[in-house]
Design goal:
Distance between the termini: 114 Å
Strand order of the largest sheet: 5-4-3-6-7
Order of helices and strands: EEHHEHEHHEHEHEHHHHH
Number of strands: 7
Radius of gyration: 38 Å
Number of helices: 12
Structural class: alpha/beta
Largest sheet: 5 strands, parallel
Amino acid sequence: MLDLLSNTSSNGTVTMSRKRTRSRSEEIVSTTNLPQPVTGCCLPAPFSEDPEPSALRNACDYSRRITLDEARAGLAPRPVRVYADGAFDLFHQGHARVLQQAKNAFPNIYLIVGVCSDKMINKHKGRTVLKEEERYNAVQHCRYVDEVLRDAPWEYSDEFLRRHKIDFVAHDDIPYSCGDTEDIYAELKRRGMFLPTQRTEGVSTSDIVARIVRDYDVYVRRNLARGYSAKDLNVSFLKEKKFKLQNKMHELKNKMHELKDKGRRVMDSIGERKDDMIAKWEEKSREFIENFLLLFGRERLSNIWNESKGKLMV
């Protein structure tokens, strides 16, 4: 669990830092001394060059290497520094689940997440949807991340691992080729510094982009209706008019459906009222007949008839 602590420097400036307690569920740390209204872990993860990560890195004794067995058994003498990286374009649940696996791999982990720059991604994979600053910001706000490394390298050198004091690198176990190298993780696997994670099947940035491309017309029409211009969406004048006409036809179709539904509801309401009137008429008719029979039973009717007949004959 990460708690925020306030530190006052010599010039009176108050800064916030993140401190890891024993676990998420063991004890609730009092926050009465924290500046209000800040409560709990509400700050994004810092960047590697920020003061707190730099201080933690400098204090880390990297001369004592931690083995995979020690880390899994919870016997590491310090927080295990795990590194995971990627493009993290259109940050989605698959990204979050990978980072969750890395964060929960051992009892005590400090997770560093590297995010590649636009230049690096464009060189090796192609154009991204989000700019690098947007991707950095998305990863910063993932709950499993302790530190974000901007402009992450594509391959891992010994100097890079030493500089950031990385114990293990987390990634899925599929061989990842680069240039003449069949698997850039092969050396890390040989050293026992590789931490395998599982991908989420059917969830990737490419899948999301494919969905948008497949339903291109729908999204263009939606954004035109929301006020985007043809220039914003990179569509021609004729296409803009075509999509706007389709939007009008769609609106008209929806209105026709609404009118049809309203008419059906009115007819149903009339039918309900008609049935109610018939039921009430039948009830009143039965009541009238019952009252009539009470007043004029068979004997009374016979007497009235006889009296009336006698008068008519006279």
